[in-house]
Specification:
Elements: H1 2-19, E1 22-32, E2 35-44, H2 51-63
Antiparallel strand pairs: 1-2
């Protein structure tokens, strides 16, 4: 039952992302101890900022 619920939520988030002009999701899974973490990453099709630019911006903002 829990897996079914997680699948429904995941499917809904994919549809929402596609409706807003986003590419993805690119899904990353990592298991730490007995917990599985899943992160879905979306990228905007209209963005002019590269991934490198985003990372540098985040680092600069953290330094402030």
């Amino acid at each position: 039952m829990a897996e079914e619920l997680a699948t429904v939520k995941h499917t809904e988030s994919i549809k929402e992302g596609q409706e807003h002009g986003q590419v993805g999701p690119f899904i990353m899974r990592r298991t730490i101890s007995n917990t599985v973490y899943e992160v879905a990453v979306y990228f905007s099709q209209t963005s002019r900022e590269t991934l490198n630019d985003k990372i540098l911006r985040l680092i600069r903002n953290e330094i402030r």
